[in-house]
Amino acid sequence: MDLFKAIEERKSTRAYLERSLEREVIERLLHLATRSPSAINLQPWEFIVVSGEERKRLSRMLVKLLRERKATCGPSVKEPLPLYFKRRQKDLLESIAPLLPEGAVFQEFINEGSCNFYGAPTAIILTIDHAFSSRHFTDIGITMGWFMLAAHAMGLGTCPIGIIYPFQNEIKENLNIPDRKEIVASMAVGYPDPEASVNRARSGRVPVSDIVKWRG
Ligand SMILES: Cc1cc2nc3c(=O)[nH]c(=O)nc-3n(C[C@H](O)[C@H](O)[C@H](O)COP(=O)(O)O)c2cc1C
User: Fold this and answer.
1) 72 CB less than 6 Å from ligand 1?
2) Is residue 206 included in any domain, yes or no?
3) Which of 27, 64, 135, 159 is surrounded by the fewest CB atoms within 10 Å?
4) What's residue 71's pLDDT?
5) CA-wise closest residue to 151 among 192, 110, 185
6) 159 CB near ligand 1 (under 6 Å)
7) For residue 12, is pLDDT > 80?
8) Mean pLDDT over all residues of the chain?
9) Is ligand 1 within 6 A of the CB of residue 160?
10) Predicted pLDDT at 78
């Protein structure tokens, strides 16, 4: 698939078929994703691939923690956001809400859905060694982006999942991840459910003129 087409078409998938992913497919995706650049080529990323029953077990724990701690998907901020950011959040809600399954409540669908990796057969957890400062999170973001584009080009869907971040310690224990690794992000990956209306949602973007300052 043409790269420009993949960039234009990719979007977050929030409903998956049960069909599991072949190991070779995941290996190919990891190969492509890790062709991405990183500072000093340190390749600080590590991927934990959680599939099948293990993924379901992880999700059961995450949903339980989410309910106990009343956690919710929202921006991680140090101070209140200016209004124009809040507008973007509202726009996203409006692009997804009308396409939810009947009777679903938006926040619950997103919160519990995220913890369930939206039913994807595989969850990818990305970690970084705690020796690295947060500047190296950029490297992790780039490799995630490449993974998602490559997955799209192969006919797969993905959804980045950040809601799990506060449950670091429990996830590490659950998946036997060494203490010195920090969980940076995660993703759902699988075959998109073509019948699910939510997969028709397409988020907007502000015009480039809103986010650019030209100098010179
Ligand atoms: C770091 C990061 C964390 C995210 N976490 C979640 C999440 O926990 N649950 C979810 O449904 N979507 C999550 N998303 C997906 C965003 O909502 C989505 O990328 C955004 O609305 C743009 O839509 P698009 O991916 O369809 O283009 C996350 C995206 C990023 C980049």
Assistant:
1) no
2) no
3) 135
4) 77
5) 192
6) yes
7) yes
8) 96
9) yes
10) 87
Separation of alpha carbons 110 and 105, rounded Å: 9
Query: Which pTM does this prediction carry?
Result: 0.96
Report the separation in Å between the CA atom of 205 and the middle of ligand 1, taken as the mean of its atom positions: 13
Check residue 1 and give its pLDDT. 82
The total of structural domains in the chain comes to 1
Side chain identity at residue 68, one-letter code: E
Q: How far is the CA of 92 from the centre of ligand 1 (A)?
A: 10
- Check pocket membership of 144 for ligand 1, CB cut-off 6 A: no
pLDDT of 74 over the 90 cut? no
Count of positions (residues) in the chain: 216
In a domain, 122, yes or no: yes
Q: Does residue 139 lie within any of the structural domains?
A: yes
Q: Which atom of ligand 1 is nearest to the CA of 164?
A: 8
Please state, in angstroms and rounded to a whole number, the distance separating the CA atoms of residues 56 and 62: 10
Return the pLDDT at 171: 97
- The domain that contains 184 carries what CATH number? 3.40.109.10
User: Could you tell me if residue 215 is inside a domain?
Assistant: no
CA of 12 to the centre of ligand 1 (A): 7
What's the whole-number mean pLDDT along residues 185-204?
Answer: 98
Domain range for 180:
3-72+81-201
Mean pLDDT on 68-79? 84
Q: Whose CA is nearest to atom 19 of ligand 1?
A: 12
Q: Are 189 and 21 in contact (CB under 8 A)?
A: yes
Output the residue whose Cα is nearest ligand 1's atom 31: 160
